[in-house]
Amino acid sequence: MPRAIWKGAISFGLVNIPVGLYPATRPGNDIKLHMLRSRDQSPIKYKRVAEADQKEVAWEDIVKGYEYDKGQFVVVTKEDFDKVNVASNQTVDIREFVDLSEIDPMFFDQPYFLAPEKGGDKAYSLLREALEKSGKVGIAKVVIKTREHLAAVKPLGQALVLELMHFPDELADTEELKLPRTEPGKKELAMAEQLINSMSGKWKPEEWKDDYREGLMKVIEEKVAAPEGKKSAPAAARRKPTNVVDLVSVLQESLNAQTKGAGKTRKPKTAKHHAQRKAA
Predict the structure, then answer these.
(1) pLDDT tens digits, 240-270
(2) Residue 46: DSSP 8-state
(3) Which of 99, 89, 94 minimizes the C-alpha distance to 150?
(4) Total Cβ atoms within 10 A of residue 112
């Protein structure tokens, strides 16, 4: 069993449930690449250099500062941080329960598993089942590593999940974007809906994979194994994007491709799904 990164309790009303907090995600699978000097593959190191004189700065001479105006900083000291330090009471303090459907998914950020500690099994199961039946989630405040977070307590199968959330002022406003306000034509809309329906299937996350990472890893492994100077096989030609002008003809072409089973180069689940539909 993994080690808890935080131990405390879920609190709502007079109920306290002892729990441990566990990561619900794994580190990203990005391939780590190093910066090297081309002629001898010597790793590149970065130095902390002051803008004023380009001299390297020792760690003990570095302070933190806030830029309140262009090029104007105020230094923030440890004492300043202590003044606003949020004391941790090791509690997931649920303040209210709301319908999950009312929360914009954009608010959700980082999930963690909550598991009951000794003596908390019964109350843990009670909260999980009550949330499941009500369709609600608990909105809470929790302090993790001196930082206060907004969070939601949600049921997930046999588990409770603590999902850290963004505060409203952390989300960008769509009004800042240039978004189309034109209404689509009825024919275009009907064909788009038909195409969506023809490509619809059940969500099977295990059938999706990172093709780019696997392809790059294969190239790297081939270069490691290949003799010096041997060139890798040329990469497959990329499909160039085109400017879509006639939506109706493009939608019709897509629908025809789906009907003829020409979409076999898509994800395995899509091809399998259309084969079942055709057989039916």
Answers:
(1) 555 545 667 777 777 787 777 644 545 544 4
(2) -
(3) 94
(4) 21
For residue range 2-48, what is the model confidence (pLDDT) as tens digits?
A: 888 889 999 988 888 999 999 998 877 778 889 999 999 999 999 99
Residue with tokens 């949330």: 131
- Secondary structure letter of residue 135 according to DSSP: T
* CA atoms lying within 13 Å on the CB side of residue 72: 3
What is the signed CA dihedral for 122, 123, 129, 132, rounded to 10 degrees? -150
Structural domain spans, the chain: 6-27+85-169, 183-193+248-280
Structure token digits, residue 97: 């329960």
pTM equals 0.68
The CATH fold assigned to 6-27+85-169 is Ku70; Chain: A; Domain 2 (2.40.290)
How many H-runs (helices) and E-runs (strands) does the chain carry? Answer: 6, 9
- CA dist., res. 28 & res. 25, Å (int): 9
| pLDDT digits 0-9 by tens, 227-236 | 665 555 555 5
